[in-house]
Structure formats: structure tokens, C-alpha cells
Design goal:
The complex is a heterodimer of chains A (about 350) and B (about 110). Chain A is mainly alpha-helical. In chain A, about 65% of the residues lie in helices and about 5% in strands. Chain A contains 13 helices and six strands. In chain A, helix 2 runs parallel beside helix 9, helix 3 packs antiparallel against helix 9 and helix 4 packs across helix 6. The longest helix of chain A is centred in the N-terminal third of the chain and has 30 residues. The chains are: A mainly alpha (about 350), B mainly alpha (about 110). Chains A and B meet through helix 11, helix 12 and helix 13 of A and helix 1, helix 2 and helix 3 of B.
């Protein structure tokens, strides 16, 4: 039997449970991984330190445990199932990430498998085929939406994976997107803290986990999230977009991520794994990052940022944050326009 | 270290970080410009859908109504696909320019 707990308590638990689990779990994970020899070498540092791999596993565990806790605590069966579906979707993507980290999946197989991550959402009908557009309001897409839905989960997962290349870059940029989603959701649906809004629950779960993860992944990183981390986080963004009816807002907020993915795909003419491609960057004598100028290397957002000269790794991450902040502002403007449209003022 | 000293150090760090962000922003002009263009064109598409495509009338006949609805969805999707394609082409072009710039630098170094 579920307990009748105030939504504000659920929000607090949704934030602090993954935060605490990740804070406690990651030091153990780092120790175990280094002991077992599962580490990567951070090529952007002079000392070439060994960094524990697959930190994303702890993120995934934190999300699963937090979701289960909230399912136990809330009263409404529809909401319980929705949280369960969110958790399963993220878990499927996380498991694909674990398999990729261990066996190195091909660049085509990975996005293909990620299409299946949306099956729980489709099977349980936890979507509304009515994406909201500014000036237009609610649209009705039914069949078209169903065809596009797998991509709404797969595309963010892959694009987050493609931008997770520097210490702390994935955590900070995705946290910025989550903050913007939180505000956009409040603007569009205007739910107060006295009502349980599942989008806020999902955002808070992800924020809690990512803040703790950032402490261990920020420069100089003690752990890499691996594909497990980036696919988990990316799929969560996709699931939040679909289940929270915020598809357009999330796409706008993710402009830098999609731009980076476009650049890579267009330059190497197809999908290739990072390890199959030539390196687009190299280190200068004073350990800054500069473009290699190799024509066979993919042209990425990093390449664009380094156009005017080399930058330190921390500065590159800061430029990513600036770009995500700008797209986040656009996402908020989109949300305001959607709200105005829904109120019939446009 | 006293509380006041640590607090002042903390705020100096934050101030320094914000300043670094401002210093980095000018070099991102082109990319921010592209982001703005992508956003503005999307808003334009939404306005076209709202003021143009949505004006296609509904019909009392079920067959015709389905046809009109399909036309609305089809045209809107076509606009979105064109938008995505323009986005793709512009990103590609911006990044290719980057490549050319590097070639020139390399050639200069070789000569």
C-alpha cells in the first residue's frame, strides 16, 4: 500500500536520493575499476592519468533506485507506471551503453538498438501524439508521431554520446538543458509545487544524479561516464521530451548537440565509432587543445570552437556551456510562445 | 582562514569564472549566429503553419477530411524536413570553412 506523501516531499526525495547514491557509489566504483584494470587514459593531460571507466553505471543505478523509491511512495497508479516506464526506457539505453563499453558495438548497431529503448513508452501509451508548437498550439500527429517516437529517444542519446568528449562536458551541458526544461515545463503547464508533475520528478532525478557525477567527472576527471553514462542521460532527455510533451523545447535546447552530430555525420559521410575515425584534435606544447587539421578527421563543434586558436580543456567545456545556455534561452522563449498560444493570445 | 576570507575567495572565484565566460563568448560569434538563425527559421516555420497550412479547411465528408488533414500534416512535415536540411547544410558549410582555414595555416607552415 502506498503512503500519501506531499508532492514537495517527493520532489525533495527525487533530487537527494540519486545525489546521495551517486556521491557514495562513485568513490567505490572508481576504486574497484582501477583495481580491476578497467580504466582509460586521459589524453588531454600531461601526466596521462588513468581514469576509471564506466562511471555511468552508478548514474544508472542511482536513477533506478530513486525511481523505485518514488514508485513506492506515490499513491496514483498511473503515475507509478509512468515512472516505471521512464526507468525502464533509461535502463534499456544504459544496458546498450554497458554492452557498448564492454564489446564495442558498431556505430550503426548502437543507434539501431537505441530505437528499441522507446518500446516501453509506446507499449504503455505514455505519450500524447500532440506536440505543442509556438503559434500553432497542440497538433495532432497520431501515426506520424508513432513513427517518429523511437527517434525522439535515440537521437538525443546518440548526440549526447557524441559530445561527451571532455572532462565534465556532458554533465554541465545536460544540467543546463535540464534546468531549462524545468522552467519551460513550469511556464507551459503552470503546475505548482502542490501538484505532482512527473516531468519535474524526472528532471530532479537526473539533476541529482548529474550534480554528484559532475564532482567526479569535472576537470581533472576521476571517472569517465563511458557510453553507459552518455546513453543513459541522453535517453532520459528523450523520454522526458516525449512523456512531458516537451519535444520542441528539448530539440531547441539541444541545438549544439544536434549541430555537433550533423558535423560528424556529414564530414565522415556516415556513422562511425570514435575509435574508427582520425583524431580531430591534438595537444599543444603548453597542453592546450588545438585542431589537427586532418582532413580525414570528423569536423566537430570542438573544431569550430578551436577555429580561432587553441584552448585549455576547461575553456572548451566553458564554450560548450555558453552555446547550451544560448540554446536554453531559446528553449525558454519557445515555452513562453507556446504558453501564449495555448492561452489564445496569439 | 577566517570565514570572511574564505567567503571573499569564493566570490572572487565565481567572479573570475563569469569573466572567463565573457572572454570566451566573442570567439563563438559564428556558432551563436547559426543557433539564432536555426531558432528564428523554426519560429518562421511555426508562423507559416499557423497562418497558412492551418487555414486549409476541414470537410464534413470523412474522405475529404482525411485528405485535408493528411495535406496539413504532410506540408508541415515537409517544412520541418527542409528546416532540418538547411540546418544540416549550414552546419556542414560552417565546419568546412573551418577545415579550409586549417589547410591554409598548414600550407603557410610548410612554405
Amino acid at each position: 500500500m502506498a503512503l500519501d506523501i506531499a508532492p514537495i516531499v517527493i520532489y525533495i526525495l527525487a533530487f537527494f536520493t540519486p545525489l546521495i547514491i551517486t556521491f557514495i557509489g562513485l568513490p567505490f566504483h572508481i576504486r574497484i575499476m582501477l583495481k580491476k584494470g578497467i580504466f582509460g587514459v586521459d589524453v588531454h593531460k600531461k601526466e596521462k592519468p588513468k581514469v576509471a571507466e564506466m562511471g555511468g553505471v552508478i548514474l544508472l543505478i542511482a536513477i533506478i533506485i530513486s525511481s523505485i523509491l518514488i514508485i513506492i511512495l506515490i499513491d496514483d497508479s498511473y503515475n507509478r507506471l509512468s515512472i516505471g516506464i521512464f526507468c525502464i526506457t533509461v535502463t534499456v539505453a544504459g544496458i546498450i551503453g554497458i554492452i557498448d563499453d564492454i564489446f564495442n558495438l558498431s556505430a550503426l548497431l548502437k543507434p539501431f538498438l537505441l530505437l528499441f529503448a522507446s518500446i516501453p513508452i509506446i507499449a504503455s501509451k505514455r505519450y500524447k501524439p500532440e506536440p505543442m508548437l509556438p503559434f500553432v498550439g497542440n497538433t495532432r500527429l497520431n501515426i506520424v508521431y508513432l513513427i517518429l517516437l523511437p527517434f525522439i529517444v535515440s537521437v538525443p542519446a546518440n548526440s549526447v554520446n557524441m559530445l561527451d568528449v571532455f572532462n565534465g562536458s556532458m554533465a554541465t551541458t545536460v544540467m543546463l538543458i535540464l534546468i531549462m526544461i524545468f522552467f519551460a515545463n513550469m511556464i507551459i503547464f503552470q503546475n505548482g509545487v502542490d501538484q505532482l508533475d512527473l516531468t519535474n520528478v524526472f528532471v530532479l532525478i537526473m539533476m541529482g544524479a548529474l550534480i554528484a557525477y559532475w564532482f567526479f567527472n569535472r576537470y581533472p576527471a576521476k571517472t569517465f561516464g563511458g557510453d553507459t553514462g552518455s546513453l543513459t542521460v541522453g535517453a532520459a532527455l528523450g523520454a522526458i521530451a516525449v512523456m512531458g510533451q516537451l519535444e520542441v523545447v528539448v530539440i531547441i535546447a539541444m541545438i549544439p548537440f544536434i549541430m555537433n552530430a550533423f558535423g560528424i555525420i556529414s564530414s565522415v559521410r556516415g556513422l562511425f565509432e570514435r575509435r574508427e575515425m582520425a583524431r580531430p584534435t591534438k595537444m599543444t606544447d603548453d597542453w592546450k587543445i588545438e585542431s589537427t587539421g586532418n582532413l580525414k578527421a570528423p569536423v566537430t563543434l570542438v573544431g569550430l570552437v578551436l577555429q580561432k586558436g587553441p584552448l585549455h580543456e576547461k575553456e572548451v567545456v566553458k564554450t560548450f556551456n555558453i552555446l547550451t545556455f544560448v540554446s536554453g534561452i531559446f528553449a525558454i522563449i519557445t515555452a513562453v510562445l507556446i504558453r501564449i498560444t495555448l492561452e489564445g493570445l496569439l | 582562514m577566517s570565514f570572511l576570507e574564505s567567503a571573499s575567495k569564493f566570490f572572487k572565484n565565481i567572479g573570475g569564472n563569469i569573466l572567463k565566460y565573457f572572454q570566451l563568448t566573442p570567439r563563438l560569434g559564428k556558432i551563436i549566429g547559426l543557433e539564432t538563425f536555426i531558432f528564428a527559421t523554426f519560429m518562421g516555420i511555426c508562423a507559416i503553419i499557423s497562418e497558412g497550412i492551418m487555414m486549409i479547411p476541414s470537410s464534413s465528408s470523412a474522405g475529404l477530411n482525411f485528405l485535408f488533414a493528411s495535406l496539413k500534416v504532410g506540408l508541415s512535415l515537409l517544412l520541418i524536413v527542409i528546416w532540418l536540411f538547411v540546418w544540416y547544410i549550414l552546419t556542414k558549410k560552417l565546419m568546412k570553412n573551418d577545415g579550409k582555414g586549417e589547410d591554409k595555416i598548414e600550407q603557410k607552415e610548410e612554405s
